[in-house]
Amino acid sequence: MTREELARETARRTGLTMKEVQIVLVTFLDVIRETLCGGHSVFLRGFGCFSSRMGRERRVRDPRDDGVMVIPSRYRPVFRSYPALRDAVQNSLAPRTRVAFFCIGYAHAHSISVVGDFNGWHDDDSPMQKLPDGSWFAELTMPSGQTIHYCFLVDGVRRPDPGYHPDAGGISARQV
pTM of the prediction? Predict the structure, then answer.
């Protein structure tokens, strides 16, 4: 996305004119540049941190005479994303896998949900369906290649998955 495309999308979402958005965008970038040039950092909560960092001296091949030349250390701008941004990018771009959860041994329960780090441990986000044999089932779509930590919420009480060996905290883990 270019600066103009960013301004156009921001104008569309906010109702401001393109000219107003471009003025704000240029000013915003100027403030970040001036702050970094002053040796300070810019912290954008939930997004990331812009800062300046001294690089190290490097030795590289000299293309003129096949010798070695030294590139001196210098300051460079650095952006470090915060976990909320990293997680959002990972969750939206990672390949997804359908994961089946079965809960057995609670045939007389009234409601069961699967809760874990994949849904922020929210109790009502992933309810399970009761099957005719008394077991419970849920199928969720999650980003591939991660280990999830989860447990079952059985009638309002968190319980480890009886089909897996829980760790000391009563939380089960599974590679997706």
Answer: 0.59
